[in-house]
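step 4 of 6: structure.
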Amino acid sequence: MTINWNNNISKMAQDRLSPSLLGDLFAIEHKYKPICLSAGEPNSDFFPLEELAPFFKDVCKKRELFGYYPFHAGHVGLREWIKNWMKDDNIAAPWVEVDNIILTTGSQQGLALLSDLLVDEGDLVAVEAPTYLEALRAFRKSGANFIEVEADENGIIPESFEMVCKQNKPRLLYTIPNFQNPTGSVTSLERRKSILKIAQKFDVVIIEDDPYRYVSFIDSLPDSYMSLSGDDDRVIYLGSFSKIICPGIRCGWMIVPVPLVKKVTQLRHTIEISLPASLQHIVYCFCNQMDRKQYFNKIQKVYKNRCDVLVSTLNETMADKGLEMNFPKGGYFIWSHLPGINNMRNFVEYSIINFGVSVTPGYIFYVRSGQGLDTLRFSFAKVSLEEISEGCERLARSYDSFVAL
Amino acid sequence: MKDWQDHMILSWPCRNTSKWGGIDLDLNWENRLSRMANNRIHGSIFSDLGAIEKKYKPVCLSIGEPATDFFPLEDMRVFFNAICDRRDLFGYYPYHAGFTALREWIVTWMHNDGIVPSWVTSQNIVLTNGSQQALSYISDLLVDEETCVAVEAPSYVEALRTFRRAGAKFVEIETDENGIIPESFENVCKEFNPSILYTIPNFQNPSGSVAPIDRRNTILDIANKYDVVIIEDDPYRYVSFVDSLPQTYIGLANENKRVIYLGSFSKLIAPGIRCGWMVLPSPIVGKMLELRNTIEMSLPAPMQFVVSEFCLNINIHSYLLKIQNYYKKRCNYLISSLDKYMVPSGLKINYPTGGLFVWSQMPGIKDDVDFVKYAIKNYGVSVMPGSIFYSKPGQGMDTLRFSFARIDEETAEEGCRRLALAYDNYIMDSEKIKNEERRSVIYE
């Protein structure tokens, strides 16, 4: 009998997995190597590899890190360091101890674990419109359906969230409160408080995804949902070293309420019998010797500079085409509207292939189709200052040429 | 088909969780958890035993993990030193199947050993963070709620936890010292129509058995007849004390692409390197990568680079010989100490031809978990209770698994001496308890 694998694929894999839209574009970029105003990935020039090198060299002396690592929550020293950091910065709630910090191989793994733990088939997850689409793929895998909450330049609109809670009874709210992907918005303190109250009233769990927090161009940020929630342990916080150190180090963390800790580690134990303790140890050594304030200042300066240059260059090259932008206060992204393009996906592909510049079409960040058709997301993360000016000029030429078609 | 209720293990492994302390969840969070989290995620008995071991620090005849002095870290240092020159590996790695050079090395190696059919190319190799992750992805990809998975009795219990998470029901196949008994597999196929057979054909965990070639052929024929997917888990292949092994299932199946093969570097290099691989038939590679990309945005490419460079720079043949000698020596230490201290008391052992384990039966023991806890606490020696390797409770209550992975001559001798003491006293204590119970009945 020849095997027909279609009959052997699980319902989940048949119905709920789909290729990543970003992945599709990535494949085209990979082929044409454009100037990349699209990728939400730090430039490799910034990876602190000189500082990491001695720790990579030393790790071989720590033989015990190369066995099965006995702590399923991850490297104990690093978790302790993160706990203190999160306390110093007033992000963690008072009840947070080292046991509540669970290391992940990046935020996506955190999201995958949480969706397995919290989402049943048909459950509703409330999400910002627009939002980070790759996160939703993890929820979708567990069977989630999505309900969109309206957002503006100050993040989620509380009235919209309350309406959604009343009408649709979501189980979870997934939100990126700081320098949101794709809009760059920061949810104001007042709104956070209202949203938390609504979540309490309707018993909604909040997943607070915060990867861009330390790529900030302003002096202070509103309190985290987790610290605002205090003893009401309904917030799960996700952090990541991808934007702070580098993505290849594969290290992030979550802060989970006490009642969840055991379930998370038990679940993870079915996925990974042991953790990459040696990599986690390298992150630990790196963190332990750094002057946090100084290090983050450096990161912030570099990205702020790029952001400023991208904003002013877009003003010079694209404003006359009708481009309207948000001015971000941190993160990697500029969100914009560009009128006059009837098919943004075609325009993006056209720009990559014919003019060697890539941007991300904004409609892919919406759950319901038909929205954001005139939106574009720019990223200043991966490009040098020279590439920014060249990229914007190429985009302007591509625009003229595309609308003339 | 018979009623599932009578034959499936519905609440597995509740026996273990009740025994080792259940989980008390805040009521709010219990309501918030998914059905899967509430019903199919349980503590691992390995972790529970690990916790007791950590407290009492016994002589360890239980753990299937090599001693740290075995890890070839001196030979790897040069690659760890070189890693930071590869800036490109520290961004998001664009190939979801893993570091390309390592996948190519693996495919060449497997072809040189003649264990995979000619259709296998590097496109069929997907790197994982270890075999458990491979099993986790495969479960997500192939297992629905109620999907029936046929497993060896006994089998590697951590693998079963992963299938269980995805909703699998298990049906056990009888085995002996030559692995799966084909007649039992055929009966299981007829009665329960399993979708998947999970098997460790070489130096099985826990029994150490190797399935001979004629059985493999028969089992493959049966899988073919009943359209069963075979998951061939082969982590101990290169820890072999014999000259040659029967052909792999994936090799035997050839153009009949119903076998998924799992390999691992944990026993070859070190578990902490977190690297294994799977060989997948082409029709499911795409789905597998889509699945992985929802769970991991990127891979630990720097680590995979280190493994790759290490593999490219060793003479694999002499390296494997070194591993084999290392473990063979340790196996002999354990066997001779068991022969000296435990066999006279009635212990029956399987003499392994490879792997890390000695499987045994101890006639006087009626509750292996109880005995093991007793031995750890009172005599400072740990072995693995055998009953935990069965998916259906109540079996193997007189079996024990020994591991020689991390022992030397002294620890083998001392461990077995302590175990013999523990055994004698355990039997005496239980006699005493029985007598006291009898007496208390008489005096009541």
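step 5 of 6: annotate
 - The longest helix of chain B spans residues 409-443.
 - Chain B touches chain A through 87 residues (CB under 8 Å).
step 6 of 6: archive
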